[in-house]
Design a protein that fits this description.
Length: 158
């Protein structure tokens, strides 16, 4: 398996797509039920293959991911050959970027000495989608890129 198996909730949300996937494998509901009972290892393989297909489709389209922690915000722009990053770090330990109050504080203090901003870029070590998946596995979420673009515009306007 290249990525990770989808969760039960994700499979439930994608049940129509999974049914279509099984149909492309010439597996109908009766045969699927039989596989789960009598050949669970084959059923597991089908779940894994479907999971990888879904992940691959999501990752190919991924342009931005974000990771928030108490004192850091990591913003990533996932390009074809490199990932660009903006890291915001508060120097005030009581600030919590995981709260709306902390984010409001960040907006009000963006250009003060209370926030370190680091901009970087790195070529992918290996395959692009695997690198993005690793970032997601560390806690990042998919993003529309709005925050990245706003901070990037501000930083580049200096």
């Amino acid at each position: 398996m290249k990525y990770t198996r989808l969760t039960k909730e994700q499979f439930e949300a994608l049940h129509h797509e999974f049914a279509n996937f099984l149909a492309t494998q010439s597996i109908d509901k009766k045969e699927w039920d039989d596989l789960k009972t009598n050949k669970p290892e084959v059923a597991e393989q089908e779940l894994d293959v479907f999971s990888d297909l879904i992940w691959e489709g999501v990752l190919v389209q991924t342009k931005y991911v974000e990771h928030f922690s108490k004192n850091h915000i990591f913003l990533f722009n996932c390009l074809d050959t490199e990932v660009r990053s903006i890291v915001l770090k508060t120097l005030e330990p009581e600030v919590d970027f995981m709260t709306s109050k902390g984010l409001e504080w960040m907006v009000n203090n963006l250009f003060t000495d209370a926030i370190d901003i680091h901009v970087g870029k790195k070529e992918y070590q290996g395959e692009r989608n695997a690198a993005i998946f690793d970032i997601i596995q560390q806690g990042a979420i998919l993003s529309d890129g709005q925050l990245y673009q706003q901070i990037d515009n501000i930083v580049n306007a200096k």
